[in-house]
Amino acid sequence: MKDLKGKTVLITGATSGIGKAAAYKFAENGSRLILIARRKDRLEKISKELEVKFKTEILTAEADVRYFEIVKTVVNGLSDDWNKIDILINNAGLARGFSTLFDGSVSDWNEMIDTNIKGLLYVTRCVVPLMLRNNSGHVINIGSVAGREVYPSGNVYCATKHAVDAITKGLRMELVDTPVKVTTIDPGLVRTEFSMVRYRGDSDKAEVAYSGMKPLTPEDVAEAIIFSATRNDNFVVAQMVLLPKAQASTMIIDRKN
Ligand code: NDP
Ligand code: 8X3
Fold it and tell me: Tell me, what DSSP letter sits at residue 8?
């Protein structure tokens, strides 16, 4: 099992949900963190908490992964002390809206495509060359069960997560003769801000996703990320699907509890 102490971990979307939970777990394991998201106040608060609680080094960057120039500036601007990135968690992502293709919002589609696909590509494009230069690294993408199945009115979100699956598989092939590992972790329902973002703050609609069942917690997903990140060099967790016990597929959910 690999030790995470002193490893440099870059996490996108670290201000909430899965990314935030992963930041806490890596910090608890002694890793130093580069945290990226758009909300500066949250980045500052989380970074202070982690520094005090775990006495680890934290670097934050207020950045929107949808813009390649911004991502490039952040990554290329890392000092030599920070640019040997051991683990990249491509987690920043979102769903916007829940409507049929023929009734959907083009701006919602663009936001999902720009964040979930292009953002992940931009960060990967900038970080993997650093890993190759350092002859070591691990890219962990947060996909979804929506990258393996589709559901009505989930069309474009599902398509973006299918793209994450394709990008992950292709990247693993391209890096097979290098020390860099590539993993995708594909959760089902996790209670985060995801649904509130999808329904733009409509808490009644957001709650429907979790009604009558017990979703995963972001900490459950973070544990799977840590498991993947700590396997020995000969062992790559290629794909991991994580489901709440009450969920058998995107659409088959036992909601009687
Ligand atoms: P949250 O909404 O709780 O967190 C999303 C994070 O992504 C926030 O930190 C947000 O930070 C960041 N983010 C969003 N857009 C951008 C952007 N353009 N640039 C930088 N950061 C961005 O949701 P989750 O934790 O649930 O989502 C994390 C990932 O997990 C997503 O990829 C999602 O698709 C995936 N997932 C979620 C599931 C769920 O049921 N919750 C299930 C399966 C997968 P900020 O707003 O500060 O920029
Ligand atoms: C999030 C899970 O089922 O809401 O990726 O699409 S789902």
Answer: E
- pLDDT digit string, tens, across residues 214-234: 999 999 999 999 999 999 999
Report yes or no: 108 and 30 within 8 Å, Cβ to Cβ: no
Partners of 141 in beta bridges: 90, 184
Q: Considering its fold, how many domains does the chain have in total?
A: 1
The answer to whether residue 93 sits within a structural domain is: yes
Residue 17 in any domain: the answer is yes
CATH number, domain at 203?
A: 3.40.50.720
- 3-state helix, strand and coil shares in percent for the chain, rounded to the nearest 5: 45, 15, 40
**Which residues are the active-site residues?**
157, 161
> What is the position in ligand 2's atom list of the atom closest to the CA of 146?
6
Question: Does residue 206 lie within any of the structural domains?
Answer: yes
Q: What percent of the chain has pLDDT over 90?
A: 100
Ligand 1 center to 18 CA (angstroms): 7
Give the residue numbers spanning the domain of 95. Answer: 8-242
Is the shortest distance between the CB of 187 and ligand 1 below 6 Å?
A: yes
Give the integer Cα–Cα distance in Å for 64 and 153: 26
Whole-angstrom CA distances from 7 to 27, 34, 59, 122, 143 are: 10, 11, 13, 22, 23
pLDDT at 109: 98
Structure token digits, residue 79: 């000092």
Interaxial angle between packed helices 40-54 and 17-28, expressed in degrees from 0 to 180 and rounded to the nearest 10 = 20
